Each structure stands twice: as structure tokens, then as C-alpha cells.
TrEMBL record:
Residues 83-360 form the Bacterial type II secretion system protein E domain. PANTHER family: TWITCHING MOTILITY PROTEIN PILT, TYPE II_IV SECRETION SYSTEM ATPASE. The lineage of its organism: Bacteria, Bacillati, Actinomycetota, Actinomycetes, Streptosporangiales. This is CpaF family protein. InterPro entries: P-loop_NTPase (IPR027417), T2SS/T4SS_dom (IPR001482), T4SS_GSP_E_ATPase (IPR050921). Gene3D superfamilies: 3.30.450.380, P-loop containing nucleotide triphosphate hydrolases. It comes from the Bacteria. CDD domains: VirB11-like_ATPase. Belongs to the GSP E family.
């Protein structure tokens, strides 16, 4: 065996021994600690107590270690006993936006929009199952062969999805999605997610109580954009937010956040987004914000936008602004109220004023790629007029997306609504006359 192979073999054996050692010290810790006494302590006190006990055990029974190695061992043992074990350092890393565990030996993370594998692994499949059980137990759920898929939440609010064999062929799969940090429009403009004039225009749309749909694919930043735009809602208005997982962080005082609820172990007690939208209409909201529409609640949301809840906002999965319209039609048709497609399209035409579409580049960058106004004359089919588009240049060897934000005149009816609300139109846009010419 060559030197390189021997070193690699020693590294692998050392890693396995280290994992086994952590499991040994975790068992010793649980043998010595008083669990009843521990239950009375807060989280910070509990961690401090476990670190102290683990330090005594390792100092009394363990091998000779450097201060750094000893501190790392104690931290890993306490993470195993108290937190999510090997995932704790990843959860503490603010640059990590998603954690993907594909079986005990394959852990991937997303940083800056790029997915990469990390040198982290579970000691065994049993240890991964223990971590999963610890997560789902917090929300009174279970995961087993009879219920092999489950959604849950961590105490910090991160969304968790679990799927296990026999549905998964690579062992237990655990996906943890972290909340995006709240950004202001100015911060998003500094990150080239949009340009300053578009930010001013979108802020004017929100203040003028236009109904906005934010569309995009998975991971394009729809919730981040929704959160940033919500900052321009006046503080005196009553806002009801509806989400599957409460991610929005509105700064206004009068906000009522609602969150859907999955069924319990007996498959009862489910509260859907549609149930919450219907209930929200009875809560006297000035605006309703839905984190994402996925089904029949779309029709209820469109009707709410049409009946005195102007300025509402919603996100939807779509690949373009036009696709967002078709997607809304399809989702609205899933309602138990069966309406012709033409009628649903008329509902969308009356309810939605502007569609903001976000995209994600090959370099992981997220930005607004199109803003379109719903501009339909009487008797016409629903028509979209682009207000802003991002035109990208050919990608070079560095794989960085570069391009330019192009601005177009606003339709006259849209500009008129802004004028009556006391809002201006940024000069780079201008206003399109009724005859279709900009001025």
C-alpha cells in the first residue's frame, strides 16, 4: 500500500473512531447526568451543565487531548445529546441556506445559491434516525413505514422535510430550509437583484394599493422579495399574513400572522391555506398577504383582491410572467367552485395589477427578470405589458451573469392610478399613451 493510500486509510479509520467515540461519550453523559434536574433548566443553562459534566467525564476517563481537540469533542458530544448532532455547526453557519442529508454519509449544503458537499457525516443510519425522531417529536409527529413522509419545524423556525425508506432508496433523506434573512429594497438593489428605479416603482405600487403577484421558481427569492416590498405598506393598515411556514418578518405594528397546520397522527386536524384565506376575510383586513398559493385557495384570493382588499400580495411558482397567469388559472380551477377558464381569466384580469417575476442565474444570483402590468382593454383577452426586463449578456468563462435592466413606459391606466394615489413614476419609465406610444 502506498503512502497516500495509507494516509487516506488512517484518515477514514480516524474519522470512524471519532464518530464512535462521540457516541461512547454521549452514552456516558446520559448515564451520569440527572435528567429530571436537567428538564428544569433553560436551553442555555442545560447546554452549560452538559458541557461541564462532559468535561469532567472526558478529563477522568478520556485520552490525552489538546485543549482544542478536547473542546471540539465536548461540543460534539453535547450537540449529539441536546441538538442535531453533526448538523449543529451547519445550522450555526449563517451562510448556509439549505441543508440536504441524503443518507448518513452524504450531506450537502447551499451557499450563495450553489450546492456543495460538506465533509460531515452521521456515525450510522441509526444516528440519523435519532436526529429525525428528535425533530418530528417536537411537533407531535412520527415518521415510520406507515407514515414515511413528514414536514416539521425546528425551534428556530427552519422548515424540515423528511422522507424515509421504502420511498427513499438511499436511506433517510432530511432537508432543512432556513429562513432567508430580511433584506430591504435598498439592500437588494445593492446586490443587483433589481435596480434603483425599479425599486422606487415597486414601492409606489405597494403604497398605491396595487395587487401584486410575485412569481418565480424554487429558490429564486420570492419570499425575500415579498418581505422587502411589504415594508412599504403604511403602518396604520391591518395586515393578515397566511403561510405554510411563517417566514415573513413584517415591521408594521398591526400584523396578524396565520400559519397552516398539518394533520396529526390520526390524520385529523388539518388546517389548509384555503381555510385561513376564508377566515382572514372575516378578520377585517386591509391587506392579505399569502406566502404561496398552491391550490383552490387561489380563487378565494382572487375574489378577495376583487372585493375591497386592494394592495394584497401573493407568490406563485411559475417560469415567466405569462406562465404565472396560466398557473393562477390552473390553481383557481382546482377550487370546488367549478368555473369556466374564461371566467377565471376575467377574475385574474380584474384582480391582478402587476406581476413581478424573479429568476436564478447559473452563478446562483437571484434577481427580478421581468415586471409586467396586466393591461387589458374591454373585450380583449388578458394581455401583459412588460414594464422592466433584465437582458443578460452571454455568460463568460467565469460563469457570472451580467446584463442590463431595461425600462419601458407604463400603461396610461396604471400611471393614472399611481397619480391618484399621490405617487410618481420614475422618469426612466415614462407613461405609454392610449395609442400605444410612450411619452
Amino acid at each position: 500500500m502506498g503512502l497516500k493510500d495509507r494516509l487516506e486509510d488512517e484518515r477514514l479509520h480516524g474519522t470512524a473512531a471519532n464518530r464512535a467515540g462521540v457516541s461512547h461519550w454521549r452514552r456516558r453523559l446520559l448515564e451520569e447526568v440527572n435528567l429530571d434536574e436537567l428538564a428544569l433548566l433553560g436551553l442555555a443553562q442545560r447546554r452549560a451543565r452538559l458541557e461541564k459534566v462532559t468535561g469532567h467525564i472526558v478529563g477522568r476517563e478520556g485520552p490525552v487531548l489538546s485543549p482544542g481537540e478536547r473542546a471540539a469533542l465536548i461540543r460534539r458530544v453535547v450537540d449529539e445529546a441536546l441538538g442535531l448532532g453533526v448538523l449543529e455547526p451547519l445550522l450555526a453557519d449563517e451562510t448556509v441556506t439549505e441543508i440536504m442529508v441524503n443518507g448518513p454519509d452524504h450531506v450537502f449544503v447551499e451557499r450563495e445559491g450553489r450546492v456543495q458537499r460538506v465533509d460531515t457525516a452521521f456515525a450510522s443510519e441509526d444516528q440519523l434516525y435519532q436526529t429525525i425522531d428528535r425533530i418530528v417529536a417536537q411537533v407531535n409527529r412520527r415518521v415510520d413505514e406507515s407514515s414515511p413522509m413528514v414536514d416539521a419545524r425546528l425551534p428556530g423556525g427552519e422548515r424540515v422535510n423528511v422522507i424515509i425508506p421504502p420511498l427513499s432508496l438511499v436511506g433517510p433523506v432530511l432537508t432543512i430550509r432556513r429562513f432567508p434573512r430580511s433584506y430591504t429594497i435598498e439592500e437588494l438593489a445593492a446586490r443587483a437583484s433589481l435596480d434603483a428605479p425599479t425599486g422606487l416603482l415597486l414601492a409606489a405600487f405597494v403604497r398605491a394599493r396595487l395587487n401584486l403577484v410575485i412569481s418565480g421558481g424554487t429558490g429564486t427569492g420570492k419570499t425575500t422579495m415579498l418581505n422587502a416590498l411589504s415594508a412599504f405598506i403604511p403602518g396604520h393598515e391591518r395586515i393578515v399574513t397566511i403561510e405554510d411556514s411563517a417566514e415573513l418578518r413584517l415591521r408594521q405594528e398591526h400584523v396578524v400572522p396565520l400559519e397552516s397546520r398539518p394533520p396529526n397522527i390520526e390524520d385529523k386536524g388539518r388546517i389548509t391555506i384555503r381555510d385561513l384565506v376564508r377566515n382572514a376575510l372575516r378578520m377585517r383586513p386591509d391587506r392579505i398577504i399569502v406566502g404561496e398559493v398552491r391550490g383552490g385557495e387561489t380563487l378565494d384570493m382572487l375574489q378577495a383582491m376583487n372585493t375591497g382588499h386592494e394592495g394584497s400580495m401573493v407568490t406563485v411558482h411559475a417560469n415567466s410572467t405569462e406562465d404565472a397567469v396560466y398557473r393562477l388559472q390552473t390553481l383557481a380551477s382546482m377550487s370546488d367552485v367549478k368555473l369556466p377558464f374564461d371566467t377565471i381569466r376575467d377574475q385574474i384580469d380584474s384582480a391582478v395589477d402587476v406581476i413581478v417575476h424573479l429568476g436564478r442565474g447559473p452563478d446562483g444570483s437571484r434577481r427580478i427578470v421581468e415586471v409586467a402590468a396586466v393591461s387589458t382593454r374591454r373585450g380583449e383577452r388578458l394581455r401583459l405589458e412588460p414594464i422592466m426586463t433584465f437582458e443578460s449578456l452571454p455568460i463568460g468563462p467565469d460563469r457570472v451573469v451580467r446584463g442590463e435592466f431595461r425600462h419601458r413606459p407604463l400603461p396610461a391606466p396604471l400611471a393614472t392610478r399611481l397619480f391618484h394615489a399621490g405617487e410618481g413614476v420614475p422618469p426612466v419609465f415614462g407613461v405609454r399613451a392610449d395609442d400605444g406610444e410612450g411619452r
